[in-house]
Amino acid sequence: MTGTRIAALGHYQPAKVLTNHDLAKLVDTDDAWITSRVGIQTRHVAGPDEPVDELAAHAAGKALAAAGLTPDDIDLVLVATSTAIDRSPNTAARVAARLGMTSSPATMDLNVVCAGFTHALATADHAVRAGGARRALVIGADKMTDVCDWTDRTTCVLVGDGAGAAIVEAVDDAEAGDVPGIGPVLWGSVPEMGNAVRIEGSPPVFAQEGQSVYRWATQQLPALARKACERSGIAPEELAGVVLHQANLRIIEPLAAKIGAVNAIVARDVVDSGNTSAASIPLALAKLVERGELPSGSPVLLFGFGGNLSYAGQVVRVP
């Protein structure tokens, strides 16, 4: 069993929606200012009684149902998050408890902020390929509104809450075919820019050097994304979809063009969901699949970037 694939996806967002007009009542901003700078129109906001692990469990339950699996079919739970309040039990353990798992799964959190899901997906891929797990539940979940400074109009207009999940499972050589279901990861970081995106302090607060991140992403990321495609044996023009971290529409649109994915559907979920950090990629991908915009088996580039300044990307096949 040398291959892996994504068997199913799931996503979840809280019911409450915060519009740009709502934000204009809280801080000195307006719809035109927000839309022109980041392209966001709405975002979902979790209540005080909706912790990160609850968001994650909802998305996980949908992914399990879509795959026709029970919680006890999972032996590894990985949760990418940077907004869990408690250090222990970790979010993954709490998700396993919420789902009623009795199969003694390994449970781990990964904190790579906005690139968390693609790091977690690669980690699950490696674990399954190495025989450490048969099926993994990979979740990106963040409650960014918990760490938001609602008096700072440069950051509070960006954030939203949500979760996305994927089931990663082993496949044999015959099923895997010539092109892997989950391609080799390209990952790394820029340590000298680690402070460009921060969630720090007590209580923790999200802050960033927006112009520094914008310049790095638009100048450096296209070549990295093309290299991720190359590792999977896929040319950018062969991609059916591109799902970048949903940070800012003004970053996403030029990046997709520079990558050369001329035939791909580009995820623009940031318009409706805002920046949901580690949740943004699985959330956007799950919605595209649910709406039937990406056919089963088609290649999609996932690429996360942001806090630390870390990045990770891979080409996956749509379940």
| Secondary-structure element series | EEHHEHEHEHEHEHEEEHEHEHHEE
Strand elements, count: 14
Q: What is the rounded Rg?
A: 18 Å
Main sheet: strand order: 1-7-6-4-5
> What's the pLDDT, averaged over the residues?
94
Main sheet specs: 5 strands, mixed
Ordered list of secondary-structure elements with their pairings:
Layout: E1 3-12, E2 17-19, H1 20-23, H2 31-38, E3 42-44, H3 52-67, E4 76-80, H4 91-98, E5 106-110, H5 116-129, E6 135-143, H6 153-156, E7 161-171, H7 173-176, E8 186-189, E9 197-200, E10 205-208, H8 210-231, E11 241-244, H9 249-259, E12 265-266, H10 270-273, H11 280-290, E13 299-305, E14 310-317
Parallel strand pairs: 4-5, 4-6, 11-12, 11-13
Antiparallel strand pairs: 1-7, 2-3, 6-7, 8-14, 9-10, 13-14
Overview of this protein structure:
With 319 residues, this protein is an alpha/beta fold. Helices cover 33% and strands 25% of the residues. It contains eleven helices and 14 strands. The protein has helices at residues 20-23, 31-38, 52-67, 91-98, 116-129, 153-156, 173-176, 210-231, 249-259, 270-273, 280-290; strands at 3-12, 17-19, 42-44, 76-80, 106-110, 135-143, 161-171, 186-189, 197-200, 205-208, 241-244, 265-266, 299-305, 310-317. It has a five-stranded mixed beta sheet, sandwiched between helices. Strands 8-14-13-11-12 form a five-stranded mixed beta sheet, with helices on both faces. Strand 13 (299-305) and strand 14 (310-317) form a beta hairpin. Helix 3 crosses helix 4 (91-98) and helix 8 (210-231) runs parallel beside helix 9. The longest helix has 22 residues, at 210-231. The protein is globular, with a radius of gyration of 18 Å. The two termini are 18 Å apart.
